[in-house]
Known about the structure:
Layout: H1 2-11, H2 14-27, H3 36-60, H4 63-89, H5 96-107, H6 111-123, H7 136-159, H8 168-175, H9 178-192, H10 196-229, H11 235-262, H12 266-277, H13 284-291, H14 297-328
Helix pairs in contact: 1-14, 2-10, 3-9, 3-10, 4-5, 4-7, 4-11, 5-7, 5-11, 5-14, 6-10, 6-12, 6-14, 7-8, 7-13, 10-14, 11-12, 11-14, 12-14
Amino acid sequence: MEFGSRFVSQLQSPTLAFLLGGILIAALGSRLTIPDAIYKFIVFMLLLKVGLKGGMAIGEADIGAMLLPAFFAVVVGCLTVIIGRYTLALLPGIRTEDGIATAGLFGAVSGSTLAAGTVVLESEGISYEPWAVALYPFMDIPALVLAIVLASVYLKKKDGTGDKVAIWPIVKESLQGPALSALLLGIALGLFTNPDRVFDTFYEPLFRGLLSVLMLIMGIEAYARLNELRRVAHWFAVYAAVAPLMNGLIAFGLGYIAHVLTGFSPGGVVLLAIIAGSSSDISGPPTLRAGIPTANPSSYIGSSTSIGTPVAIAIGIPLYIGLAQLVFGA
């Protein structure tokens, strides 16, 4: 009962409320729209802020303490793709390349979900290693690379060609994606410069307000994408509802192992689960469109935006926090 009451109270937090509010007004037929340029600017600002904080923390952190969580982030990203690829392949009405692209997107990371997770953790008074945000690329890049490699191998076998798959162009495409670029830029600036003053006076005060607008936009977009998802196999909707929670719970379990072995904080475990439960909404789609051009974007983007992201934020974040409070007594 205590877990249930905490779960419900977390659903009422401003971050989650704005997401649900966006879905609600879109469902009621509202014509409210926010320009895409504003959406991209907000995402850039949020990820730059998260990166700055992570970079400043890395400069003071014990690098050895990061190794096991970073390794587990790679493992979760790859596991997500492998499990999703073979699970979706077994379901009727799903083309293999569509299934692989969907698994890849769910293995990659959503910067907006990461930002939402940090705010909810801070509002709940749950501390975490600030460098934990730097686990993002350790999960994101391997997932996208593995998905594109698996799709390329499958398509070459299907076509009867045996050409090798080039890995570096995939990694380069991922690194050049807008979300990961903004995060890595922030980490580098936080690590090698002294941005404390601008961080405290500009980025920190704006963070929660910008995030609330982003959640509203994502709620509206989630409802709009439902029409795209209806055009493809309904199994994508089932996968999109289940995969974020399954992936997050796998990461939570691995994070608990890191907690026992290295002292990884309960908040860090939750953040790792939040990252794992997210699905890329900015850099992942264009990377997969370029890497798996035969895959139908309606399947993987529709699954992620309309169902995966709302589930990861509205259900996943409260679930992992409640689970941490139950397991760690936090």
